[in-house]
Amino acid sequence: MPKMFVHAPSGVFTAEARASVAAELTDLGMACERLDDTPAIRSGVWVLFAEHEPGSIFSGGRAASHPVIVLLVNAIKGGLDDPARKRLIEEGTAILGKHAAIGEGRVPAYVAIQEIPEINWGMYGKQVDLSSMRAPATA
Question: How far, in Å, CA of 11 to CA of 100, rounded?
Answer without folding.
Answer: 9
